């Protein structure tokens, strides 16, 4: 009788689970940008992306069960070149990276598509230009003819150039020292460059008395800056249901992170993983709902149009990308729409237009 009762419970539990037609992969492999200020607890990077946050919240287990696919994160240093190569070689299933690295990769025919974005409209994403405390440079206008350290091919590079343009300064009017973040900080501290541009790492320099910021960080924010999540064509073709479920988990996590009542636990999660924990609240000032807006809409399209134009103008890519090609960079919106519907999030985020984005994912 006991065995029969146990069997009945197992059958009832199984019946309560959704039925899926395809076999689950053993692992789901995510590529992540290795951000310099992320801690390495126990010598292993855990990251601060939605992937890591979903794990912290238990959302992967909720969706796939404790015996579901193992979520594996691999971290890549640099501008996204290594991450794009890993996608092209089949070493990853998904990847999170900045808009400009995505433009470079997809222009270079990396076989992947954008499944969602993390868009920040006029909020968060602290960026600063720093000079040494005793520098005669007082404003951005004084940077003309100076050497500025920045890593080309990154979102920060695009923001810097836009900041300079707002002050009437073209890239040819300054000397760009193309250096990785650690190299840029070393060059700045050694006096080899006049200024350095970056994020939380620049705030840390200021706190140590080693740098002075030019103007307010609010002056350096893009109208809409975008990070995106890519899925490889191979994975999406082999596992369309799993692709949809991954998107659902990430949208669910974005919704949790976007709620103001979750600001304190969100900041605690980020600070526990940040060597610049003191600066996390400043970096996440502003409305969380816009910071974690994942929608594939007309604003997302326009942001990537701007990224394509920027990459071409600054010779980061060679191939031209027209409107028809741009639309093929995005996965069909059906996945995201279904996730939003299943999660009861219809109308939660503001959709910017629908006419253009309705044809995403079409050749």
Question: How would you write the strand order of the largest sheet?
Answer: 2-1-3-10-4
Mean pLDDT: 85
Alpha-beta classification: alpha/beta
Helical segment tally? 16
CATH architecture of the largest domain: 3-Layer(aba) Sandwich
Briefly note the CATH topology name of the largest domain: D-Maltodextrin-Binding Protein, domain 2
Strand residue content = 5-15%
| Tally of domains | 2
**Largest sheet report:** 5 strands, mixed
Order of helices and strands: HEHHEHEHEEEHEHEHEEHHHHHHHH
Describe this structure in words.
- The chain has helices spanning 2-16, 50-57, 59-64, 81-88, 99-107, 155-166, 181-190, 200-207, 233-238, 240-258, 263-272, 280-283, 288-291, 298-313, 323-328, 334-342, and strands spanning 27-33, 70-76, 94-98, 112-120, 128-131, 147-150, 175-178, 195-198, 212-213, 225-232.
- With 363 residues, the protein is α/β, with parallel strands linked by helices.
- The protein has 2 domains: 21-121 and 225-359, 3-Layer(aba) Sandwich (D-Maltodextrin-Binding Protein, domain 2); 128-220, Periplasmic binding protein-like II (D-Maltodextrin-Binding Protein, domain 2, 3-Layer(aba) Sandwich).
- The strands form 2 sheets. Strands 2-1-3-10-4 form a 5-stranded mixed β-sheet, with helices on both faces. Strands 7-6-8-5-9 form a 5-stranded mixed β-sheet, sandwiched between helices.
- α6 links the parallel β6 (147-150) and β7.
- The termini are far apart.
- The model is unreliable at 1-17 (pLDDT under 50).
């Amino acid at each position: 009788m006991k065995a029969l009762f146990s069997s009945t419970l197992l059958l009832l539990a199984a019946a309560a689970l959704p039925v899926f037609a395809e076999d689950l992969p053993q692992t789901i492999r995510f590529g992540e940008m290795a951000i310099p200020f992320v801690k390495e607890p126990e010598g292993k990077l855990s990251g601060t992306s939605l992937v890591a946050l979903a794990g912290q919240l238990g959302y992967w287990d909720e969706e796939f069960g404790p015996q579901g696919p193992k979520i594996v994160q691999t971290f890549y240093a640099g501008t996204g070149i290594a991450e794009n190569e890993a996608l092209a070689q089949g070493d990853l299933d998904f990847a999170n990276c900045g808009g400009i690295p995505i433009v470079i990769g997809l222009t270079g025919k990396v076989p992947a598509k954008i499944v969602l974005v993390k868009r920040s409209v006029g909020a968060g994403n602290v960026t600063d230009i720093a000079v040494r405390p005793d520098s005669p440079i007082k404003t951005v206008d004084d940077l003309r003819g100076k050497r500025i350290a920045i890593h080309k091919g990154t979102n920060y590079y695009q923001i810097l150039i836009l900041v300079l343009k707002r002050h009437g300064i073209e890239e040819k009017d300054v000397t760009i020292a193309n250096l990785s973040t650690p190299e840029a900080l070393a060059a700045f501290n050694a006096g080899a460059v006049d200024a350095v541009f970056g994020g939380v790492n620049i705030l840390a320099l200021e706190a140590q008395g080693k740098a002075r910021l030019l103007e307010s960080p609010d002056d350096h924010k893009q109208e809409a800056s975008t990070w995106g999540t890519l899925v490889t064509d191979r994975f999406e073709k082999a596992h369309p249901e799993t692709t949809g479920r991954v998107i659902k988990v990430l949208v669910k996590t974005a919704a949790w992170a976007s709620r103001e009542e979750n600001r304190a636990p969100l900041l605690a999660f980020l600070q526990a993983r940040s060597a610049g924990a003191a600066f996390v609240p400043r970096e996440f000032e502003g409305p969380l709902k816009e910071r974690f807006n994942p929608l594939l809409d007309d604003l997302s399209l326009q942001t990537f149009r701007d990224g394509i134009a920027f990459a071409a103008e600054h010779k980061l890519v060679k191939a031209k990308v027209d409107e028809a090609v741009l639309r093929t960079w995005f996965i069909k919106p059906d996945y995201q729409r279904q996730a939003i519907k299943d999660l009861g999030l219809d109308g939660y985020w503001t959709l910017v237009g629908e006419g253009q984005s309705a044809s995403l994912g079409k050749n």
